[in-house]
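Researcher: I'm preparing a figure for a lab meeting and need a structural model of a single chain. I don't have an experimental structure, so a prediction will have to do for now. The sequence is pasted below. Please return the structure as tokens so I can convert it later.
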Amino acid sequence: MTVLDSGHWPAPYVSIATSHTKASAALGNSKIDWTYLSPPMLIHPGERTGKFRIGGDDLIKDAEGKSRVSFEDYAVAVVDELETPTHERAHFTIGY
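Model: Understood. Here is the structure written out token by token.
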């Protein structure tokens, strides 16, 4: 089940999330090179810790059950993937 399917997604953003779901499916069925990074539920200003986790299709939650990461660590994950691709033609996510 996706977060969108769970009913916990804010109604004003359902159409945007639905479009992203369709785009992800289209990429998966294409022959182009692609990487799809899904953010956690909350991206917030903070500090760069370098102590985030990378996952596949499942939402990553911390010990308190929160799905979050700082903008700074999110940026590090993006740059890491650009510099050393490990998710070619794949979906991945990030969180603490």
